[in-house]
Design a protein that fits this description.
There is one protein chain. It contains five helices and five strands; from the N terminus they run H-H-E-H-H-E-E-E-E-H. The protein is α+β, with helices and mostly antiparallel strands. Strand 2 and strand 3 (85-96) form a beta hairpin. The longest helix is centred in the N-terminal third of the chain and has 15 residues, at 3-17. It is globular. 19% of the residues are buried.
Amino acid sequence: MNRNIETIQSIYQAFGRGDVPHILAQLSPKVEWDVWPDLSAQRAGHPLLLQRTNPAGVGEFFQVLAATLEFHEFKLHDIFGSGHRVAALSCVDCTYRATGVRLRDEELHLWTFGDDGRVIGFRHYIDTAKHMRGAGLLAA
């Protein structure tokens, strides 16, 4: 099995048990988390889709995630990839705590690895409009 795929499997297992230190240990010091050239949800200030550029920032992401969402289900369907890129297909059922909006969304997470086997990039591919409504940033 691809070593990077094994790393991603360990990251999702750690996520399931709330082991954020394990996740952060897999990241490059210069990781780029949701760094996009132009993402409408970032411009609107969606707290879960802000750019983060180091492990401390990613640690903050997980704090914001716990404060923002109540998870009813997080199901990982598949992990696949080759070379320096690994993708994970998942389904999430959650409620935005501040608004009470519950949503179900299929997500694709794209992970990019450096030559040293550490994560250098991560991007959420989600229904941003659905999540912006959930966060109260877009009218229904």
